[in-house]
Structures are given as structure tokens and as C-alpha cells.
Design a protein that fits this description.
GO terms for molecular function: metal ion binding; metallopeptidase activity. Keywords: Disulfide bond, Hydrolase, Metal-binding, Metalloprotease, Protease, Signal, Zinc. InterPro entries: MetalloPept_cat_dom_sf, Peptidase_M43. It is a single chain. By secondary structure, the protein is mainly alpha-helical. The chain has 5 helices and 3 strands. It has a 3-stranded mixed β-sheet with strand order 1-3-2. The protein is globular, with a radius of gyration of 17 Å. The C terminus is likely disordered.
């Protein structure tokens, strides 16, 4: 379980579009308050990122924490590129430490949470962004979804758009199963 394996997962996930990540360095900070209470918008998250953030807008900072309390069901969260100008110290992704590759959280320990959150960091939205209405996730070749799903649900088509008919397999399924 480690950040180098998370970078491997990022390169696997973002290889087809040609994005490449390299591990610049890892810092380990012992702060139980940040680790356990670093949820989105919390004072702990703000202090953690203000203290630890490195680099500019092209540098992905990954923070691994143990979400607790209100955030105990959260796997991760991310900023979007458009927020960098107004809040540069908030930039980066925060993931549950047990989702790192090889971590103890079965079904979530392959680094895919980090890949998912990094997708947001590079500007990708969820396919259910905007429900079935334009512009959705702003990506023309992904099937919009009315609501979030749990896992990859075969045959799921919650919006009928263009050439996709109700009941057809959502093409995003291919990515989910092949990644």
C-alpha cells in the first residue's frame, strides 16, 4: 500500500487519453486531527492543505486521510480546475487511505478512488451531472444518467438520448469493467 502504486493506477487509468503522472515526492505528516477530520470544507482540511500543498496548477497533490464522523462513508473528493484561480491552496484530491492500492478496504483497494477523483481534478464530471439534461457532463460520447449508481450496472440506461435507446447498455460500462 503506497503512493507509488497509486501513481501506477493513475497512469493505467489515464493512459488511453495520454495523461501521464510521475511521483515527485511523498511527505508523511503525523496529525491525528487532520487525518481523522479532513473532510470537505472543514477547518482541518483547510489547515492541512495550506500547510502541505506543493507546486502550481499542474501539480496534483494527493492527501490520504481517514474520514470519520460526518464523512465516514466518503471515499474521496476533489477540486476542479476552474476553482484553482480563486482557491489555489484548496487544489488537489483527498482520498480515504484504505483505498490506496493494496489497502484493507476490499473492493476499493485498487487505486480507482484516486483515479476517479483525479478525473474531477482534470475537469471531468459525473455522468449524472445535470441528470438527463444538456450539457450533462460536457463529454459528447458518454451516456447521461439520471441518478448515480452503485458499481457498474449492466444494461442501465436511465436517460434516452439520441441514438441510445432505453434498455441499451451504457457505453461507460466498457470502461468500468475494462479498467
Amino acid at each position: 500500500m503506497g503512493m507509488s502504486h497509486q501513481i501506477d493506477a493513475l497512469n493505467l487509468g489515464f493512459g488511453p487519453p495520454g495523461l501521464r503522472f510521475a511521483l515527485r515526492n511523498v511527505t508523511r505528516t503525523v496529525n491525528a486531527d487532520w487525518f481523522n477530520n479532513g473532510g470537505p470544507g472543514t477547518p482541518q482540511q483547510d489547515a492541512m492543505k495550506a500547510s502541505l500543498r506543493q507546486g502550481g496548477p499542474s501539480v496534483l497533490n494527493i492527501y490520504s486521510v481517514n474520514f470519520s464522523g460526518t464523512w465516514s462513508s466518503l471515499l474521496g473528493y476533489s477540486t476542479f480546475p476552474q476553482t484553482y484561480t480563486s482557491a489555489p491552496t484548496d487544489d488537489g484530491i483527498v482520498i480515504l487511505f484504505t483505498t490506496l492500492p493494496g489497502g484493507p478496504l476490499a473492493s476499493y483497494n485498487q487505486g480507482k478512488t484516486g483515479v476517479h477523483e483525479t478525473g474531477h481534478w482534470v475537469g471531468l464530471y459525473h455522468t449524472f451531472q445535470g441528470s438527463c439534461f444538456e450539457p450533462g457532463d460536457y463529454v459528447a460520447d458518454t451516456q447521461p444518467e439520471a441518478t448515480p449508481s452503485e458499481g457498474c450496472m449492466e444494461g442501465r440506461a436511465t436517460c434516452v438520448v439520441g441514438d441510445v435507446l432505453e434498455g441499451e447498455v451504457d457505453p461507460i460500462r466498457e470502461f468500468a469493467f475494462n479498467f
